Amino acid sequence: MPHRSYDVAVIGGGHNGLVCAAYLAKAGASVVVLEKNAQVGGAALTEEFHPGFRNSVAAYTVSLLNPKVAADLDLAAHGLRIIERPAANFWPVDDTRHLLMPYGLAARQKAIARFSPRDAERLPAYDAALERAASVIRDLVLTTPPNVGSGLAELIRSAPLAHRLHKLPLDDQRLLADLFTKSASDYLDRWFESDVVKAAFAFDGIVGAFASPHTPGTAYVLLHHCFGEVNGKSGVWGHAVGGMGAITQAMARAAEDAGVVIRTDTAVSEVLIEGDRAAGVRLADGDTIRTRTVAANIGPKLLFRDLVPHDAIEPDLRGRFLGIKTGSGTFRMNVALSELPDFTCLPSSSHGSAGSHHGSGIVIGPTIGYLDRAFTDARMLGWSLEPVVEMLIPSTLDETLAPAGQHVASLFVQHVAPRLEDVDPYAADIDMRLKNRFRPIASPAVASGSTTKRSWTDPREKEAFADLVIDTVTRHAPNFATSVLGRQSLSPFDLEQRFGMIDGDIFHGQLSLDQLFSLRPVLGHANYRMPVPGLYLCGSGAHPGGGVTGAPGHNAAREIARDLKRDPPWLRG
Fold this sequence. Notes:
The protein is of the alpha/beta class.
């Protein structure tokens, strides 16, 4: 490719990078996207993982995709089609009980009443409270946070937000304070009595968070997952036909139609700094690309650890970026199935056809205590002895993913220690023997009596935990293990190596109170502008955080366009 310069180089072709690039190109900027992998999409990617079986590799479900982004880029015209799940979630509790949560208030109340009539009565008020909170936060999703500490101009820009929050009724101010500071379990204790019902709602509070439902701040994570909609319907979850890669392929087509140049198999090794500002990038092959600005769609910790020269910013500030809390405690699996799982608590019909529960999110995490033990085990032992598993079977909705009569399943699993090196092998050996609640299983290193530091780079660790995950599902669906034809497993190390997620963090930084809004990624740099002039952050490490939303890419593009003196009305949000 002949050498040329651009207005903007976007590092990373994940969904936020593509969104940012498309908006900037539509604003008249020349943009190149540089993706280290063979295909754009980042973690929102579809691939064949077993002969004849395709699935979403990492990101696996649709709800948080911002409707403004989808409309502005006209993703439907670029081939994206989203199907709604027939039900929200399905929780196997034991051999006889289950909670199948449909859509619609009356239907949800009926389902919950099987566990607690009082909880069913409380549900409308709970829904209303969350929606009031979500409506406030939802309005901030496409807003650039006030850059606290940046002088009078920034204080003036933040005045409308402060005024709006001040005008909220006192009850709503208290509600927001609860959701930002309390644990999911403490917040839910105010509403419900059934442990099963509380666990069903608390699950959203630990998704992507290496935390117990008793950890302060998980109430906000619960709220974060309430922002979404599918096909204009709030609170609905969906599936992109063709898998999550269909979303990023549509974004890539929209970006290219706007004039963006997309280069795959093009790894960036360094951000070029000239005259104290970003002036382009150096590629892994030694080539350079000159630009006016650089937008990083990678985690801020990775950006300042590996790509920005260490002397480009002062050491204390660099230390703050490197000190961002990372680690989702997640493990991803994709499995090829010869048949649908048949759950003991809700047996399939004799001909094995899919029920509404097969098309929902199937969550193994029946009580608050179960969710808490899963986290505690992982902190002490390296992985949960009884992991929390969310399983989706998208082939029940999308026949393009598997051969006729067979299926694919996505398993999103918590918890695993982001770094097994941090786990004491002696403590793990003792506790795995004392806590043998499930079956005699341990890390291969621990089982052999080795005192060597454990690591996810050891394939035996990954396969042993993957076996445990399969066994966990099989406890509730006895035919599951024998139906597995093939599997793909991604540990935190795999997620970091393949997608640049430090410690396997799916959000590029935990959604804790000290890493939200004006504090994301660090105080003083919440407006997408990094400490090096001309360098911007456009990925999930910026406000509003993780999930396949497109919002960080949208917001960063707005700020970059303004600095490039291009500010079309449609970009203002």
